[in-house]
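Suppose a colleague, Dr. K., hands you the sequence of a protein chain of 148 amino acids and asks what its three-dimensional shape might be. Before reaching for any lab equipment, you can write down a predicted structure in token form. Begin with the sequence itself:
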Amino acid sequence: MTTIMTGGCQCGRIRYAARVADTDAYLCHCRMCQRATSGVSIALKGIDTADLTWTTQPPERYRSSPFARRGFCSACGTPLTYESDDHPAMDLTVGSFDDPSHFRPVSHSGVESWHPEWLDTRDLPTQRTDQNQRISNKWIETLGHLPD
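The predicted structure, expressed as tokens, is then:
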């Protein structure tokens, strides 16, 4: 069943609506994705380009390789897309969806740069944002409440 899902950048300048057919997503560990996000991997959802509508304005794009571009917001820096020049599909960053919990990872890509010790972290100590008094106080002082 196709679902319309929305998303966008952190500052809200760039918003989209995407027709999504399933919950499948994947993690890419390649060095290009690591550098583009400053992370050890990135969660991506592949969709047909025709299934995406930019509801505000399209992102700026950076040619990250001779055959692909990455869409991002130049105001807040949020990475939004990976787009290959010769393919009618694209990837949206799972974290840019308003409800990223909709998706489930089904595969890994770029495993030559995989850091598996960063994936299974369930045994590490955890802390909610509202349990970190220093950060909670900063949010309340500046915004009046904790972020969503």
